[in-house]
Amino acid sequence: MQPTDWTPGMLLTFAIAGIVVLALGYALATLRQGRRAAELEARLKQAEESLSAARNESQQQQEELRRLNAELHDKALSETQLQTRLAAAQHTEQRLNETLAEQKRELEELRQALDAARNAHHTTERQLEAAQADNRAQQSRITELQGQIAELKDTLAAHESRYNALQERHQTLSNAHTELKTTLERREEHFREQMEQLSETRASLTREFENLANKIFEEKGKTFTHTSQATLDNLLKPFREQIEGFQKRINDVHDASLKGNASLNAEIRKVMEIGLQMSKEASNLASALKGDSQQRGAWGEAQLRRTLEMSGLVEDTHYEAQTAFKDADGNRKQTDYLIKLPDGKHIIIDSKVSLNAYDKAVSAETEEAWQAAMAEHVRAVKRHIDDLASKDYTNLIGMRSPSFVLMFMPIEPAYIEALKYQKDLFEYGYKKGVVLVSHTTLIPILRTVANLWMLERSNAEAREISEMAGEIYNSVVKVAERLQKLGNTLGTVSNHYNSTVTALVGKQGLYGKVDRFSQLSAKVSKALPAIEPQHIDFESERLSMVAEPIEEADSTEALPPAEDQTMPPDEASVGCDG
């Protein structure tokens, strides 16, 4: 198709297509040009920054060059001034040497102080070991006391068995006394009967003898004369001897009876004395346990005090007796015993003896009597509980006690039987703020209190050791800080000295310039001494490892724990070496 054959529509289409192509080409060109421009701008910015840095560096170099030229010019024109500076430098060197010697002395003193601090630290460690050994000894003592408690329990059981045996023996001796008394009465009755028989026999013999004698005298009186008196005596002599023998026999029987009666009376008196003594002992014990309320209270408090002492508690230190307090109304109230706890709190223990009804229950012969006595015993225990609860010890002024009071029952069987008879008796007291305890339940509580006091004493010793360790650590840190400052000072002095030496004997120094004077002047008699820079290395960085922890500790109000305050052995050696 020839161009002349194109229609206006085709021309318009071609025109639009061309415009679109041109627009796309222009857009692509603009996009490429924008990217290129951004890259060029970035490069330009980098070049400008490099140029600026180069200019700054050039200015610095020019300023340094001008300074060096000025310094060189000043050094070249000020020979006298430089000589003066040399003398001043020598004087400064001498002064620095003196300062160095003085600082060495101070360093030696600091090392001695560090050794003293280390010795104190070792002493503290030994004290800590001694405290630990004492703690172990206390643990051994606790074990020993536990064994003693077991022995005392066995001894108490043995005493109770002995008391029962004494009661049985008293009953046996009482029965024997009754039997002996009955036997004595029978023997005395038999003796009286024998004496009556002897008296009757004696009277009968006397009457017979008198009758016989009268008969003989009557029959022979007429025939006998005074010359037959001897014959009459011979005749009466056998009768007289028989009567005397019979009288002697009667006297012997009477004496033997008296001796037997005396021996029997002595034996009876001995039995009666033993019985009276046992009755007195039993009466005293019964009076202590079943007497009036004051005696029972005193005995119960004595048993409670003994339990406190057996548990390792010390009066006035761990507990107080008869402590007085006041309630909100100003009324005075007094506790039996007040147990002190390490945190300032208290535990109240009150002793209550309930025995009369329990004794009736033990001696009851029928089930009904036992039931009635045990019911009375439980009621007595409840009355004690109510009485303690009404005193409201826990709310007294100055009292820091839990919301309960320990009621101590010193008679273990009475305590056990009461809880057996009424299962909820313990809960009854607990609801009223009264906890029932006996020897077996109170001793573990008191031993726990004793252990708390032992731990408190150990903690106090540990705190004291911790404070001492902190003081020693702070002293070591101060020594390290001083050593660090001394090292920094020595380093600064060394740097100043080396810069002065470099300025004096360096390539551009005065030595090289004035050395030619020795060749020009004939008056020169000495050579310039050789001066070398001194390189002294101080491990102040290692000292900072010791100094930094105390700075962090000073920023807090409380000291760190005891185990963190103790200086590790390697850091202690670092401080010494520094």
UniProtKB/TrEMBL annotation:
Annotated signal peptide: none
Database matches in Gene3D superfamilies: 1.10.287.1490
Keyword 4Fe-4S: no
TM helices/strands, residue ranges: 6-29
A Pfam short name: RmuC
Region spans: Disordered: 118-142, 550-578
GO biological process: DNA recombination
Keywords on record: Coiled coil, DNA recombination, Membrane, Transmembrane, Transmembrane helix
InterPro entries named in the record: DNA_recombination_RmuC
Stated role: Involved in DNA recombination.
Family: Belongs to the RmuC family.
Name of this chain's protein: DNA recombination protein RmuC
Species whose genome carries this gene: Thermohahella caldifontis
Lineage of the species this protein comes from: Bacteria, Pseudomonadati, Pseudomonadota, Gammaproteobacteria, Oceanospirillales
